[in-house]
Write a structure and sequence with these properties.
- A two-stranded antiparallel ribbon has the order 1-2.
- 50% of the residues lie in helices and 8% in strands.
- It is built from four helices and two strands; from the N terminus they run H-H-E-E-H-H.
- Mean pLDDT is 78; it is low at 9-24.
- The protein has a domain at 60-133: 2-Layer Sandwich (Beta-Lactamase).
- By secondary structure, the chain is mainly alpha-helical.
- Strand 1 (82-86) and strand 2 form a beta hairpin.
- It is extended and about 45 Å long.
Length: 136
Protein backbone atom coordinates (compact mmCIF):
# COMPACT_ATOMS: atom_id res chain seq x y z
CA UNK A 1 0.00 0.00 0.00
CA UNK A 2 2.85 2.37 0.86
CA UNK A 3 4.61 1.69 -2.43
CA UNK A 4 1.42 2.48 -4.35
CA UNK A 5 1.02 5.78 -2.51
CA UNK A 6 4.66 6.68 -3.07
CA UNK A 7 4.36 5.82 -6.76
CA UNK A 8 1.29 8.04 -7.14
CA UNK A 9 3.02 10.91 -5.35
CA UNK A 10 6.12 10.51 -7.53
CA UNK A 11 4.00 10.55 -10.70
CA UNK A 12 2.09 13.61 -9.51
CA UNK A 13 5.34 15.43 -8.69
CA UNK A 14 6.78 14.48 -12.09
CA UNK A 15 3.66 15.74 -13.92
CA UNK A 16 3.77 18.95 -11.91
CA UNK A 17 7.45 19.50 -12.79
CA UNK A 18 6.85 18.77 -16.48
CA UNK A 19 3.87 21.14 -16.47
CA UNK A 20 5.95 23.92 -14.92
CA UNK A 21 8.76 23.40 -17.45
CA UNK A 22 6.29 23.38 -20.34
CA UNK A 23 4.63 26.56 -19.09
CA UNK A 24 7.99 28.34 -18.98
CA UNK A 25 8.88 27.34 -22.55
CA UNK A 26 5.84 28.91 -24.18
CA UNK A 27 6.73 31.84 -26.46
CA UNK A 28 5.33 35.22 -25.61
CA UNK A 29 2.05 35.79 -27.45
CA UNK A 30 1.81 38.37 -30.17
CA UNK A 31 0.30 41.72 -29.32
CA UNK A 32 -3.23 40.98 -28.11
CA UNK A 33 -6.12 42.27 -30.13
CA UNK A 34 -7.94 45.20 -28.65
CA UNK A 35 -10.57 43.76 -26.34
CA UNK A 36 -14.12 44.36 -27.41
CA UNK A 37 -16.13 45.72 -24.53
CA UNK A 38 -19.46 43.96 -24.10
CA UNK A 39 -22.49 46.14 -24.73
CA UNK A 40 -24.12 47.85 -21.78
CA UNK A 41 -27.28 45.82 -21.27
CA UNK A 42 -28.72 48.46 -18.92
CA UNK A 43 -28.48 51.33 -21.40
CA UNK A 44 -31.74 53.05 -22.30
CA UNK A 45 -31.97 53.81 -26.03
CA UNK A 46 -33.24 57.13 -27.39
CA UNK A 47 -35.66 55.33 -29.70
CA UNK A 48 -36.83 51.77 -30.06
CA UNK A 49 -34.08 49.70 -31.65
CA UNK A 50 -35.01 46.79 -33.85
CA UNK A 51 -38.43 48.24 -34.60
CA UNK A 52 -38.81 45.95 -37.57
CA UNK A 53 -42.35 45.38 -38.83
CA UNK A 54 -43.67 41.85 -38.61
CA UNK A 55 -44.79 41.69 -42.24
CA UNK A 56 -47.87 40.25 -43.84
CA UNK A 57 -49.27 36.89 -42.82
CA UNK A 58 -48.39 33.90 -44.98
CA UNK A 59 -51.03 31.59 -46.41
CA UNK A 60 -50.86 27.83 -46.11
CA UNK A 61 -50.58 27.47 -49.90
CA UNK A 62 -47.60 29.85 -50.00
CA UNK A 63 -45.99 28.04 -47.04
CA UNK A 64 -46.34 24.68 -48.79
CA UNK A 65 -44.84 26.18 -51.96
CA UNK A 66 -41.86 27.39 -49.93
CA UNK A 67 -41.42 23.94 -48.42
CA UNK A 68 -41.52 22.31 -51.86
CA UNK A 69 -38.90 24.79 -53.13
CA UNK A 70 -36.63 24.08 -50.15
CA UNK A 71 -37.06 20.31 -50.51
CA UNK A 72 -36.27 20.49 -54.24
CA UNK A 73 -33.05 22.41 -53.53
CA UNK A 74 -32.08 20.01 -50.72
CA UNK A 75 -32.71 17.01 -52.98
CA UNK A 76 -30.54 18.56 -55.70
CA UNK A 77 -27.68 18.96 -53.18
CA UNK A 78 -28.18 15.56 -51.56
CA UNK A 79 -29.28 16.89 -48.17
CA UNK A 80 -31.94 15.32 -45.97
CA UNK A 81 -33.52 18.13 -44.00
CA UNK A 82 -36.61 19.43 -42.26
CA UNK A 83 -38.35 22.68 -43.14
CA UNK A 84 -40.63 24.68 -40.86
CA UNK A 85 -42.67 27.69 -41.97
CA UNK A 86 -44.22 29.86 -39.27
CA UNK A 87 -46.49 32.90 -39.22
CA UNK A 88 -45.45 36.34 -37.98
CA UNK A 89 -46.03 35.25 -34.37
CA UNK A 90 -43.87 32.14 -34.73
CA UNK A 91 -46.72 29.63 -34.82
CA UNK A 92 -46.32 26.71 -37.22
CA UNK A 93 -48.11 27.02 -40.59
CA UNK A 94 -46.51 24.14 -42.52
CA UNK A 95 -43.80 21.58 -41.92
CA UNK A 96 -41.90 19.09 -44.05
CA UNK A 97 -39.45 16.35 -43.11
CA UNK A 98 -37.54 14.61 -45.85
CA UNK A 99 -36.87 10.88 -45.70
CA UNK A 100 -33.64 10.26 -43.82
CA UNK A 101 -33.63 13.57 -41.95
CA UNK A 102 -32.59 13.31 -38.31
CA UNK A 103 -35.45 13.08 -35.86
CA UNK A 104 -33.89 15.73 -33.62
CA UNK A 105 -34.08 18.22 -36.47
CA UNK A 106 -37.89 18.30 -36.22
CA UNK A 107 -37.97 20.31 -33.00
CA UNK A 108 -34.81 22.23 -33.96
CA UNK A 109 -36.32 23.47 -37.23
CA UNK A 110 -39.55 24.52 -35.54
CA UNK A 111 -37.73 26.29 -32.70
CA UNK A 112 -35.34 28.06 -35.07
CA UNK A 113 -38.22 29.32 -37.23
CA UNK A 114 -40.15 30.48 -34.14
CA UNK A 115 -37.15 32.39 -32.75
CA UNK A 116 -36.47 34.07 -36.10
CA UNK A 117 -40.09 35.20 -36.36
CA UNK A 118 -40.47 36.40 -32.78
CA UNK A 119 -37.17 38.29 -32.67
CA UNK A 120 -37.67 39.48 -36.27
CA UNK A 121 -34.16 38.62 -37.42
CA UNK A 122 -32.34 35.57 -38.73
CA UNK A 123 -31.02 33.27 -36.04
CA UNK A 124 -27.56 33.74 -37.58
CA UNK A 125 -27.62 37.32 -36.21
CA UNK A 126 -28.19 35.98 -32.69
CA UNK A 127 -25.37 33.44 -33.06
CA UNK A 128 -23.00 36.14 -34.32
CA UNK A 129 -23.79 38.26 -31.24
CA UNK A 130 -23.10 35.30 -28.96
CA UNK A 131 -19.76 34.66 -30.64
CA UNK A 132 -18.74 38.34 -30.76
CA UNK A 133 -19.58 39.31 -27.18
CA UNK A 134 -19.16 35.92 -25.50
CA UNK A 135 -22.72 35.64 -24.21
CA UNK A 136 -22.43 31.89 -23.90
Amino acid sequence: MKSRTLTILALAAGLFAVGQAFAQQQPAPAAPAAPTAPPDLNAIPEKMPFNIPFGTPISMDRAQTLIKTAVDEATKRGWAMTVAVVDTNGDLIAFGRMDGAQLASISIAQHKARVAARYRRPTKALEDAVQKFGFN
